[in-house]
Amino acid sequence: MLLSTKTFIWYISAFLLFDELLHCHARNHYRFIVKEAPYTRLCSTKNILTVNGQFPGPTLRLHAGGTITVDVYNEGDYNITLHWHGVKMPRYPWTDGPEYITQCPIPPGSKFTQKLILGSEEGTVWWHAHNEWFRATVYGAIFVYPKPETGYPFPKPHAEVPILLGEWWKQDITAVYEGLLATGGDPNVSDAFTINGQPGDLYPCSRPDTFKLNVKHGKTYLLRIVNAALNDFLFFGIAGHQITVVGADGSYTKPLTRDFVVIGSGNTLDVLFHANQNPGQYYMAARAYSSSSAIPFDNTTTTAIVKYNGNYPSSPSLPYLPYYNDTNASFNFSATLRSLVSEECPISVPLHVTTQIISTVSVNAFPCGFNETCLGTNGTRFRASMNNISFLLPSIDILEAYYGNLYGVFGESFPQFPPSIFNFTAQYLPLFLEIPKVGTEVFFLDYNSTVELVLQGTNVVAGIDHPMHLHGYSFYVVGQGLGNFDPEKDPLGYNLIDPPLLNTVTVHKNGWAAVRFQANNPGVWFMHCHLERHLTWGMSVVFIVKDGQRQEERLFPPPPDMPPC
Which of 143, 194, 273, 400 is the Cys-Cys partner for 166 at CB 3.0 to 4.6 Å? Predict the structure, then answer.
């Protein structure tokens, strides 16, 4: 049977991608051209914003502790910023990327050279746009290999494969974003999830381009999984196979073998997949975990095909994945992750806390304005907050204001503890708790202070899971729980031996998470919910870590080509 031209091109492209993965080399310099390109999915074609015309974007490869530069040319029609998610950027927040936090956006027709400086991260991190909702299509993986003189703390895999989980809207993503702002309600949900940019067999007009992973029986593959979805946690699994987690968020973990994993928006997992079953075809699949049935979500399933070498009937089976609102499955997975602790992989959990912060993370609501039509709960306009402050982006980036001593750009009144104490997770709460304050407030941390941050979910408006991401740092997740955090009892159960080292922690629905880190990276660092709608509504805060006394504890000066404000 003759292959169609389109199918033949797809197989050749897949082969070249696989060959590149087998023979990749780290580079010191990359060129990113941000531009629009036409892509066809779900029976229709639209222009999307891409890097180098690719969707998903290029994979960056470098070694632990390395530095690379990326020349970013904006040839699109919109402002853009790029963030290197999980790259610590020691003493160099200037090219971290969040809009109006560490830089103003790169305008169309301009170029910005971004330096990436790695700290201790090793494994899989990623990059994505960090303004408006452009990260729907502007994203890619970053492979951080061990230093050349070392190796993985597990047997070397036969091949390494990026598995990028994303979302696709038939509608233009700018229209989705602007609709969210205009109505004050929930955004239109996506029309499909994707694996490596393809929706898979279960969607219309998608079967010929479903991503296929050809494997050899008896070989082991390292899947570098990124959840790049804008607004969803995802369950992921491979039919007939168990998978073994060996890394998360650029840090090694004790091997954890499961039938499925759950991965929050912004998280990465390094997973070993052993091709040890009867040769044939098997689906890998992902679908949403959403803890609240009151909140609209995409309830479709994306698939790719694991195909053993040989000719087999094309009738793959689907893996078991938990029901969409199975909070226990999600909580039990995240609570089981542990750091790998060995002579080659030491950890350093802060034991003596000098600064404790407790912050609520809440969905909020404002009354609808005069002559407005609002689609939030009971005709309100949704907001979100940390410690009852809904973050407002300034018009000049906070890093420039801090470094240049510009006054009036941000305030210094972010509360160290919740301004109001109540039963955060009660089923019914007074309506006055729904209305937050609005401001651009930061929290200062002394250099080298040891910080414990407790994030408390609330049932204000609606309880839901929150993937909370901190720029510039990884942190040890020393505790998690459901219900209200008890400052007397819960710390007694902290894991101070082998807690996972992450950059994005899940605060489960009406639950809490406690993380610790040493504030040894001076600069301006953003913390926010990685669900894009919650970030847009204001669930974020800025930490400013002061300089230390010695020169090597101080911020580097800015690069000469910072985008103007």
Answer: 194
